[in-house]
Specification:
The protein is α+β, with helices and mostly antiparallel strands. The strands form 2 sheets. Strands 1, 2, 3, 4, 5, 6 and 11 form a 7-stranded mixed sheet that branches. It is globular and about 55 Å long. This is Homoserine kinase.
Length: 296
């Protein structure tokens, strides 16, 4: 295949108490149009992408090269035109989509014929946990667990009956900063209470009881209480979204984007109301991406 296109969806992760284990693919995309060539060249075609570095210092190239080396293959040259609808450092999985793109790039250029399981294991190793990379690869909602031995198990669900409202601020928040505010450990009683909330939310998400899921999302004890202070409009967005009919509102990934779940068709009403209150945000109605990463 001398020319091909890689498409990878954005993602939101954690979804309240699903810390480092739950993610959902969103219908915003990173797109790579690839032509096999003698030299490596990247061309960025989006305001959401940074200045183009030297090709071999490009993050996606480095991921692709590591994957090729892992399987004893040599990465040939390519001309890559990149477009992105995913803003950087906003909690919408921009780095995870790039990791998946790098793996897909190596798979295609080197003819590795990697399975979905292979790709997910490799991506989780790069990212450190599966919450963003799994939905970007598979599409839909993914609840995943990775053991200390590296075993990875997951439950996968697709549902097109939801509207997802994203409140994207005009400022960045690096994941490292958001992780620094988290406690190093939790007491047994804290862990038990937080796990109980998470267990009910997972069951509600899987069963499609989004009213209950939304309620439990907002009761997270693992990370949201610690990160709320980093987001100046945290309480305002949650309250106003609930008043407008959202099931629940959470921090997307490590933030600063926040996200509400709503019944299909209600997203536009909620978004219009919140946009009037949040002039420094882009408020958008999104959907769950059901396809995941694909190559055409």
């Amino acid at each position: 295949m001398t020319c091909f296109t890689i498409t990878v969806p954005a993602s939101t992760a954690n979804i309240g108490p699903g810390f480092d284990s739950v993610g959902m693919a969103l219908n915003r995309y990173l797109t790579l149009r690839v032509t096999v060539d003698d030299e490596w060249v990247f061309e960025h075609q989006s305001i959401h992408l940074p200045e183009v570095p030297v090709a071999k210092e490009h993050f996606i190239y480095q991921i692709a090269e590591k994957v090729a080396n892992q399987f004893g293959a040599v990465l040939p040259g390519a001309y890559v035109k990149m477009d992105s609808e995913i803003p950087l450092a906003r909690g919408l999985g921009s780095s995870s989509s790039a990791i998946i793109a790098g793996i897909e790039l190596a798979d295609q250029l080197c003819g590795l014929t990697l399975s979905l399981t292979d790709k997910l294991q490799i991506a989780s190793a790069f990212e450190g946990h599966p919450d963003n990379v799994a939905p970007s690869l598979l599409g839909g909602l993914v609840i995943a667990a990775q053991s200390s031995e590296g075993d990875l198990d997951y439950l996968h669900k697709k549902d097109d009956n939801l509207d997802i409202i994203a409140y994207i601020p005009h400022f960045e928040l690096k994941t490292e900063a958001a992780r620094k505010v988290l406690p190093d450990q939790y007491s047994r009683s804290e862990a038990a209470s937080a796990s109980a909330v998470a267990n009910v939310m997972f069951a509600a998400l899987v069963s499609g009881d989004y009213k209950l899921a939304g309620k439990m999302m907002e009761k997270d004890l693992f990370h949201e209480p610690h990160r709320a202070s980093l987001l100046p409009d945290y309480q305002k967005i949650r309250q106003e979204a609930r008043n407008a009919g959202a099931f629940g509102t959470v921090i997307s990934g490590a933030g600063p984007t926040m996200m509400s779940l709503a019944s299909k068709g209600n997203g536009a009403i909620i978004a219009k109301h919140l946009q009037q209150l949040l002039p420094d945000y882009s408020v958008e109605v999104l959907e769950m991406d059901l396809r995941g990463s694909h190559v055409d």
